[in-house]
From TrEMBL:
It is an enzyme of class 2 (transferase). Pfam families: tRNA_m1G_MT. One of its GO terms (molecular function) is tRNA (guanine(37)-N1)-methyltransferase activity. Homodimer. This is tRNA (guanine-N(1)-)-methyltransferase. Residues 4-223 form the tRNA methyltransferase TRMD/TRM10-type domain. The keyword rRNA-binding does not apply.
Length: 232
């Protein structure tokens, strides 16, 4: 079973949205497991302190390396990758999500305040992962998003196995546009090709659209896609 351990000072945020819909059904069915551990349980003083003032001064608080190390070390070392939510991390990409989903699960440390003592990251070799170039108030929403992305790829979780194959990023392209009934919406019809019944034409049109949208919206993805297609 794919197993997730989350370290947080707000364990009540979990499973939260992961207890609903696709991920929630899979959780109930035992296709994956989730434990949210309270970092404060690893604190040793009576106030259950997890943070302290930043060395060198400045605003805010920094999460303590000793407490977080104790919290991490209380989780058995079973080969699961250990991640840290951080705006300084590598932006999360579908390629990494696929790798994580194919593995045994993960341990994710959610921090708050100004972040965590740098020495912890080195000492426990944490993989820093970012949701994007913006700042959250805490790592929990990032952990929820990361887990949501992984869980839907666990075998048996998605209804049609195929729905994970032909979607955005799966081939380095954004997805083609989708349509459904009504046939005409506010004067705008569904593109004729999609109702033609000619599957080869539909496939070609979708590929064309995916390429066009990727080229227009994400020059970075397009460049990588073209480079990879080029030599073939
Ligand atoms: N002072 C820090 C921001 C701290 S935000 C800085 O300037 O880099 C508080 C916490 O929210 C972080 O420790 C991290 O766990 C989480 N967080 C904020 N933005 C995030 C992002 N884009 N991706 C993942 N986690 C994020």
């Amino acid at each position: 079973m794919w197993r997730a351990s989350v370290l947080t000072i707000f364990p009540e945020m979990f499973p939260g949205p992961l207890g609903v819909s696709l991920a929630g059904r899979a959780l109930a069915a035992g296709l994956w497991s989730l434990e949210a551990r309270d970092i404060r349980d690893a604190a040793t003083d009576k106030h259950r302190t997890v943070d302290d003032t930043p060395a060198g001064g400045g605003p805010g608080m920094v999460m303590k390396a000793d407490v977080l190390a104790a919290a991490l070390d209380a989780i058995p070392q079973d080969g699961r990758p250990r991640l840290l939510t951080s705006p300084r991390g590598r932006p999360l990409a579908q390629s990494r999500v696929r790798e994580l989903a194919a593995g045994p699960g993960l341990v994710v440390l959610c921090t708050r305040f100004e972040g965590v003592d740098e020495r912890l990251i080195k000492a426990r070799q944490l993989e820093e992962v970012s949701l994007g170039d913006f700042v959250l108030s805490g790592g929990e929403p990032a952990a929820l998003a990361l887990l949501d992305a992984c869980v839907r790829l666990i075998p048996g979780v998605m209804g049609k196995e195929a729905s994970g194959v032909e979607e955005s990023f799966s081939e380095g392209l954004l997805e083609y546009p989708q349509y459904t009934r009504p046939a005409v919406f506010e004067g705008e019809p569904i593109p004729e090709i999609l109702t033609s019944g000619d599957h080869a034409k539909v496939r070609a049109w979708r590929r064309e659209q995916a390429e066009k949208i990727t080229r227009e919206r994400r020059p970075d993805l397009w460049e990588a896609y073209s480079a990879q297609k080029g030599p073939k």
